[in-house]
């Protein structure tokens, strides 16, 4: 598996997908902060041209980490089945489980590196281009990233599992959205009628990020600011990793290559 991981890192670093991914998101971040800076120069009284407002986008939408990781995994590995990579790896004696774990490791490392780069660009460009204090807003955002990183890893693992199982990217995306968003939404709605379901739904990231996180010009209220809330995010992430790893192993053992 180590040789496979090394070969995948080499392939990824010598192809364009990872660079395009980072370039596009970096351009989007700079366009956002640059656009607000330009608007402030034209409209001096605009109240949104400050660090607090810009950092609230990610702080209040931590599920962007889940989506970005899944998209990156699709970019890196969706062509493996078409190119015969999976079939060749299994033919050379690599088990499907080892192949799955290898892809998860490679995807996570690349996603983590991209996240560090893009977060740095996001924070630094906001501080340089916009007004207002950076603290405590930078700290709250970084705490949120740390608390939600485990489930971001879980969401990425789920994407890799579906990439290896399904043959079409559209099906991968729909299945992933169903697990990460649709099922929690149904559980949340059902929870209004059944107390037990409400308790279960409260531990699903889509639900607690929607109901227990607020970030904007009117103030910040983030569940990870308290030890109990941070622990909730981490526990949900660890459970997600275990569940999605188990699911990935199970479904890929049954899939013909």
Descriptive account of the structure:
This protein has 257 residues and is mostly helical. The chain has one domain. Helices cover 77% and strands 3% of the residues. The protein has twelve helices and two strands. It has a two-stranded antiparallel sheet. Helix 2 runs parallel beside helix 7 and helix 7 runs antiparallel to helix 8. The longest helix is centred in the middle third of the chain and has 34 residues. The protein starts with a helix and ends with a helix.
Gyration radius, rounded: 20 Å
Counting DSSP H or I runs of 4 or more residues, the number of helices is 12
Averaging pLDDT over every residue, what do you get? 89
Helical residue percent? over 70%
The SS-based structural class is mainly alpha
Q: How many DSSP E strands?
A: 2
The total tally of domains equals 1
Low-confidence stretches: none
**Arrangement of strands in the largest sheet:** 1-2
In percent, how much strand structure appears in the residues? under 5%
Largest sheet, if any? 2 strands, antiparallel
Order of helices and strands: HHHHHHHHHHHEEH
> What is the 3D form?
globular
How far apart the termini lie comes to 18 Å
